[in-house]
Amino acid sequence: SEDITKIQFLIRLAGLIKVRNKIINVHINGFVSAMFVLLISRVNKKCDFFLTIHGIYREQIKYYKSHDYVWLYKKLEKYIYNNFPNIICVSELCKETLYKNFTPKGNIYVIENGIYDMEYVISKKRKLNKLFVFLGGLQEIKGIEQLIFIFDRLVYLDTEVKLKIYGSSTDRQREQFEKNIVERGLKKYVE
After folding, report:
1. What is the mean pLDDT of each run of 10 residues along the chain (191 residues)?
2. Could you tell me if 88 and 133 are in contact, meaning their C-beta atoms sit under 8 angstroms apart?
3. Which pLDDT value is given to residue 41?
């Protein structure tokens, strides 16, 4: 892929004004591009516009260092989530958090970002992958509690599985995670 500037990217997005009879899914980080596409969706009524979200900024910022534009991001986020015609949340938790913080006027859908069917993951026709890797912080919003629950079930089915975790966390989050792992008897399976 070629390197383009943010301005060039927005100019390319402006081309969506002319597109007809398509589904446009915005699946990118940041609010500037999402806001730009939201404005285009107000003009272009011949397409269906969707925004896929993985989390809510005003909830996630609790876990990260603050930066200079928090007030602006919160205003953009509120306007976008309250007005985007269709929003896809990648989990029920994301949807609940959306409704807790905003009053969206558009359609809200949940398309899970993972596989929860254990019969699919482990079946006689499929060989269980022995190493599982989690890339992400140890925050609740990232699904760490669900991961521990599912991994506990996997260990029950196959004691040779391993879980490696890569991501940032606060000391408190790390301590809570390690406590949960020890309480469930998973210490020797998790790195």
Report:
1. 70 82 80 89 92 85 69 91 95 92 95 62 54 73 78 82 80 88 91 82
2. no
3. 93
